[in-house]
Write a structure and sequence with these properties.
The structure holds two protein chains of two kinds.
Chain A lengths: L2 E3 L6 E3 L4 E4 L9 E4 L2 H12 L5 H5 L20 H7 L1 E2 L5 E8 L4 H13 L3 E6 L5 E6 L6 H10 L3 E4 L4 H40 L3 H22 L1 H12 L5 H22 L6 H20 L9 H5 L4 E6 L2 E6 L8 E4 L9 E5 L2 E4 L1 H4 L5 E3 L4 E2 L4 E2 L4 E5 L7 H14 L7 H28 L2 H15 L2 H20 L2 E3 L3 H7 L3 E5 H5 E12 L5 H8 L5 H13 L9 E6 L3 E6 L2 E6 L1 H6 L11 E7 L2 E12 L3 H10 L3 E5 L4 H11 L3 E3 L4 H13 L4 E5 L5 H6 L2 E5 L4 H6 L2 E3 L4 H38 L4 H20 L9
Helix pairs in contact in A: 6-7, 6-10, 7-9, 7-10, 8-9, 9-10, 9-15, 10-16, 10-28, 14-15, 14-27, 15-27, 16-27, 16-28, 17-27, 19-20, 22-27, 27-28
Chain B lengths: L1 H28 L6 H6 L6 H28 L5
The chains are: A alpha+beta, B mainly alpha.
Chain lengths: ~800, ~80
């Protein structure tokens, strides 16, 4: 059967399952419209009636998510608690909120959302960032409610949820902007001074009248002043803080070198004797400022760490008091209150089940995807999600004592107390600055003593600082790490901050999570027995009615193994909690599920296996038997072997049972295994490793790994993992291959080698150049030339990282 | 006299350059370089309609201000 693209979302489906509609317009009456679902159809007509049909021209072939229609929980946006948390009130009574818009695939989507928001009455301002899909909306609360705005966004097939533009992110943007302005001024000053300096140098060799020299000097002075005091402000500030804490750092050296050269140049300009050093002043400032900017640029941006975790949790729950249901803010829940939970709702308060039964997804706590079946007096843990039924439970803790809140608190703590590993360049520059300043002082004293002229002595001392001034040293790390980061990014490994490369290169312990990291994290069929009369289309129709991971595993197995299957419509579909699904088709009873279900129905089966089992029966006759297990990712074994060969100790941390943990560990060759760990246990273990002096790299994917990830020196998250895990991580693996972990190690080790080479070179340069300067052989021209040359060598050496070979 | 020429040349060219610098700094300050993708993507959807849209937003803002002021006047009570 032909596949046809949905008119709205462009996803392709069989013609038979689509909603077909004749275009209403008379002119193009022959055109047929196809929709994959009611949602898409609704959005299409809405857009056309609003005159936004041009969206589809802009969209081109991009595929969208089918528009789902979510209408519940809208009222929560107008509640008091929500307003206090996310909404900023302007002085003139306008409200402002920051939203993350879900479902944006291309720039046409951004266009559409902005357009629609602009058309909404009462919205005063709406702008969406093309890069990170975050929106800022300002509206007039007297004219429109927030719930209405969110509803508008939902009505066109997207979803929006609020986030706190955490101060950190705002600050990061501000710093970047600040640096950008300072660099613009510095580059402008440097470039202009350079061409004036060329005239200067020409005059230096061929002779120039003093009157012309004066003009050039004054012009350079005017250009250098804003560069030194505006662009160079960061160095003065750094030097001041260093001075306050009694530390000599790189900033001290830069600030003192640039300032003394500047003051001396003014003196030379006024007395019309000697040469001016304005070009050296601006060059030092510019080069090192660029180096600093490279570091700021690659700093972790947008740390909305906990927003996605807390943002998706309800702020109100339904309570039952004397038979009356009411919405109560979670802060007001007391121990002993009865809470009602509907399917799909997230638990925010711990408790024990009092009536009803159902499956719970606890993957955010244990990392395991298999839902747990709970009945009377079982414990309900916050953070889990109720999957299939309405239940009532009694709160056993208030909100602040509940597991979810304590995870969030622990997470916040771990982030702030993440151990810091001192960077090599910082350590070196401390010593370096001390030594150079000392040498300069000795030079000044020595020349004054032997030569008698204070002026000459001062020039020589300044030339020592200027020539030693560590342009190369300042660029050594940022250049190399920037190249390293960009190579890693090309291979699908995103380092969020440049310094992480160096820390990772120093690590000697790799902790791996099991489910979702070493394994795929979802069950897939490893063994299938099919009996006579088995029809794959029938089973596919049955399993597609369920969201259970086992059903999904069967479904993907069936679509892979068979040619396109027919779509059949089943009747009387009934899902039996934690057991399976029942349905009927043309009068036959279909049954799909686990051992319990089939035994209850009286079907004879072979229940002997160490894997999860799924059976399919029709009219109580067994038609198929599947064994499913969580498979190990491709290449995991080789990658782990090679990482171990690099001299890194590999351990496994998992929330799963000892037995299955050992099985996986054996297969991939990991000797040290820690099983049955709760989220906080994992982090405690990481902490223990660290106190033994290990530098820990942790790889994980779930919310249950988040605390341990935040605690580790370098946290690596899988690209499809939970948002929280990705947010607290330092490195994200987009393609999720275990091989990428190995590549990340290789890149960081190679980059760190380049950093060491760069530092070694710039120290060598100083060992040669500084004695020459002390002896008084350095004139301004040589100083400027040698500085640029040494910086170029550092840049060139860093580029060599690009030749890194990933094959063995 | 030739000194004056040199001063003029340096002065004028630096001044022109400085104008460009100020324009760039203004751009940075008002956040025009914040969104990298917008440079490439938003340009494709720039047209008459978008201009009208922007005017509409401006009008909305003005209308609101006006309303506020009117309200203020209405509620104004002279001190006794």
């Amino acid at each position: 059967m032909a596949k046809i693209a949905c008119t709205h979302c462009n996803l392709e489906f069989d013609e038979s399952v689509m909603i077909i509609e004749e275009e209403g317009d008379k002119e193009k009456s022959n055109k047929k419209l196809f929709f994959c679902c009611k949602g898409c159809q609704g959005v299409y007509h809405l857009l056309n009636s609003e005159g936004l049909g041009t969206f589809y021209d802009k969209l081109g072939d991009t595929k969208l998510q089918p528009a789902s229609q979510i209408s519940e929980d809208l009222e929560k946006f107008d509640l008091e608690g929500f307003r206090n948390k996310y909404i900023k009130v302007h002085d003139d009574g306008l409200y402002e909120i920051n939203l993350i818009i879900e479902g944006i695939h291309c720039s046409a989507c951004v266009w559409l959302n902005e357009k629609v928001l602009h058309k909404t009455d009462g919205v005063i301002e709406a702008s969406i960032n093309y890069t990170n899909n975050k929106a800022k909306v300002v509206w007039d609360p007297e004219e429109v409610k927030l719930s209405k705005i969110i509803e508008t966004i939902r009505s066109i097939g997207y979803n929006a949820y609020p986030y706190d533009p955490s101060l950190q992110e705002e600050r990061a943007v501000k710093t970047r902007k600040d640096y950008y302005s300072r660099i613009l001024v510095a580059v402008f000053g440097t470039m202009n001074i350079m061409w004036i300096a060329i005239a200067h140098y020409a005059g230096y060799f061929t002779g120039m009248q003093q009157s012309f020299k004066d003009i050039l000097n004054v012009a350079e002075f005017i250009l250098a002043t804003p560069v030194l005091f505006y662009s160079g402000w960061v160095f003065f500030r750094g030097a001041y803080y260093g001075f306050k804490n009694r530390i000599v750092n790189m900033d001290t050296l830069v600030a003192s070198g640039a300032l003394s050269a500047y003051i001396y140049s003014i003196y030379a300009m006024i007395t019309q004797r000697g040469e001016v050093y304005f070009d050296s002043v601006v060059m030092i400032i510019t080069f090192i400022l660029v180096g600093k900017y490279l570091e700021v640029l690659s700093k972790k941006h947008a740390v909305d760490t906990l927003d996605s975790l807390m943002g998706s949790t309800p702020t109100e729950v339904t309570t039952l008091k004397e038979g009356i249901k009411s919405l109560v803010s979670i802060e007001n829940i007391q121990i002993g209150d009865i809470i009602e939970l509907k399917p799909g709702e997230k638990v925010v308060i711990d408790g024990t089940l009092t009536s009803g039964q159902g499956s719970f997804d606890e993957s955010s706590l244990t990392g395991e995807n298999e839902p747990l079946y709970k009945q009377n007096s079982d414990a309900i843990l916050s953070g889990s999600i109720c999957l299939d039924s309405v239940i009532h439970y009694k709160a056993s803790k208030d909100v602040s004592g509940s597991l979810l809140t304590s995870i969030v608190t622990l997470l916040e703590e771990s982030i702030t107390k993440k151990p810091h590993i001192e960077q090599l360049a910082n350590t070196i520059s401390g010593y370096f600055s001390n030594i150079i300043l000392l040498i300069a002082l000795l030079t000044l004293a020595g020349w004054y003593f032997w030569n008698g002229s204070f002026e000459t002595a001062l020039i020589v001392a300044i030339s020592v600082i200027v020539i030693a001034c560590p342009c190369a040293l300042g660029l050594a790390t940022p250049m190399a790490t920037l190249v390293g980061i960009s190579i890693a990014a090309k291979r699908g490994i995103l380092f969020k901050e440049a310094t992480f490369l160096e820390t990772m290169a120093k690590s000697n312990l790799l902790a791996l999570d099991k489910t979702g990291t070493i394994t795929e994290g979802k069950p897939s069929v490893v063994k299938a027995e099919l009996f006579e009369g088995f029809d794959p289309s029938l089973l596919l129709a049955l399993v597609d009615t369920s969201n259970h991971p086992i059903s999904k595993g069967i479904s993907s197995y069936l679509t892979e193994e068979n040619d396109p299957l027919k779509h059949l419509t089943l009747e009387n579909i009934k899902s039996i909690e934690a057991k399976g699904i029942k349905a009927s088709y043309e009068g036959k009873n279909l049954l799909g599920g686990n051992v319990d279900l089939l035994k209850n129905e009286g079907v004879e089966i072979d229940a002997n296996s160490e894997n999860s089992l799924f059976f399919f029966a029709m009219d109580n006759k067994l038609l198929a038997r599947f064994e499913l297990t969580d498979t190990i990712r491709e290449g995991a074994k080789e990658a782990i072997e090679q990482i171990q060969a690099l001299g890194i100790n590999v351990v496994m941390l998992t929330g799963d049972h000892e037995q299955s943990a050992q099985k996986v560990a054996k297969e991939v060759g990991i000797k040290e295994v820690h099983a049955k760990l709760l989220p906080q246990d994992k982090s405690a273990l990481v902490n223990e490793f660290q106190s033994n002096g290990e530098v820990v790299v942790m790889v994980g994917d779930g919310i249950n790994d988040a605390i341990a990830l935040a605690q580790s020196n370098i946290a690596i998250a899988m690209g499809q993992g939970a948002d929280v895990a990705i947010n607290v991580s330092d490195v994200v693996l987009l393609d999720e291959k275990p091989q990428s972990i190995l590549e990340a190690y290789k890149i960081s080790k190679r980059t760190f080698r380049a950093v060491k080479e760069n530092l070694g070179f710039s120290l060598l340069y100083n060992v040669i150049a500084v004695p020459l300067a002390v002896a008084g052989f350095v004139n301004p021209l040589i100083a400027a030339l040698s500085m640029s040359l040494s910086s170029l060598i550092v840049v060139g050496n860093s580029m060599r990282i690009k030749f890194l070979n990933f094959k063995n | 006299m030739s000194e004056n020429i040199v001063i003029l040349m340096i002065g004028v060219s630096t001044f022109l350059g400085a104008l460009g610098l100020i324009a760039l700094l203004w751009g940075v300050k008002t956040g025009q370089f914040d969104d990298q993708s917008k440079f490439i993507d938003a340009a494709r959807y720039d047209g008459e309609e978008e201009l009208r849209d922007a005017v509409m937003m401006e009008n909305k803002k003005k209308a609101r201000l006006k309303k506020k002021e009117e309200e203020k006047e209405k509620n104004y009570m002279p001190p006794d």
